[in-house]
Design brief:
12% helix; Ribosomal Protein L25, Chain P; four-stranded mixed sheet; RNA Polymerase Alpha Subunit, Chain A, domain 2; 37% strand; 235 residues
């Protein structure tokens, strides 16, 4: 049994997002690998390594005309280092953080962005493999940016006994690689009972494009009580 990255978020409670100055602090060490397959991957994991792949996000385009030559590369990373980075950056923000990649005995270093695909074993919690995408300056990437709520201690609605219904935990944006935000902050300090914050209320860098067909969808709402028909949480 296995699960993807999305399931990992449930194990983290009220994390603090990394600051912009902390981005690119970590350099992921990797070595090229030539072979694939379950046996090869199992052997790598037994030796404390994690199979990984890095490619250009254009490979995800459904229209072949929009795909250009890929820089796909098979890699092997150190499990100890990846776990250390996950602990430092914290799971929900790992997928919106850029890292330096140092390929030993390879082509030097380049900037990359994790695409959010961390394949984990459901029973043991061990990381099975990683998927990264190149994040070169001048390119645009689609990614889910985590939503972080602030100002709860000053929120009038919460002081009256209301409950913060967090409807969205992330928002999908098309971002220039050099302007990827590690988080989207939503200020609830002035919300009263019944008030909502909508997607179109969020101010981001003008270069970022919200990938939603309806920006009138709410991100959060202050409800009178916790049992007042809260809207389902979306990710």
């Amino acid at each position: 049994m296995s699960r993807w990255w999305r399931g990992l978020k449930t194990a983290v409670q009220t994390p603090t997002a990394p600051s912009l100055s902390a981005r690119n602090y970590h350099t992921i060490q990797a070595i090229p690998r030539e072979y694939t397959g379950n046996r090869v991957s199992a052997r790598d994991r037994a030796q404390g390594r994690i199979p990984a792949v890095v490619f250009s996000q254009n490979l995800l385009q459904k229209d072949p005309a929009n795909r250009y030559p890929s820089r796909k590369q098979l890699l092997t990373t150190e499990m100890k280092q990846i776990k250390s980075i996950l602990k430092s950056v914290q799971a929900p923000f790992f997928c919106s953080t850029t890292f330096q990649l140092q390929i030993r005995a390879g082509s030097g270093s380049s900037v990359l962005l994790d695409s959010g695909r961390i394949h984990m074993d459901e029973e043991s919690g061990n990381i099975l493999n990683l998927v990264f995408v190149w994040a070169d300056d001048g390119t645009e990437l689609k990614l889910d940016v985590p939503v972080v709520f602030k100002g709860e201690e000053d929120c009038p609605g919460l002081k009256k006994g209301g409950h913060l219904n967090m409807i969205r935990t992330s928002l999908k944006y098309l971002c220039p690689a050099e302007l990827i935000p590690p988080k989207i902050e939503v200020d609830v300090s002035k919300l009263d009972v019944g008030d909502r914050v909508f997607m179109h209320d969020i101010e981001v860098h003008p270069s970022l494009k919200l990938l939603s067909k309806n920006d009138n969808m709410p991100i959060c709402k202050i409800v009178a009580t916790k049992s007042e028909n809260p809207e389902p949480m979306l990710v």
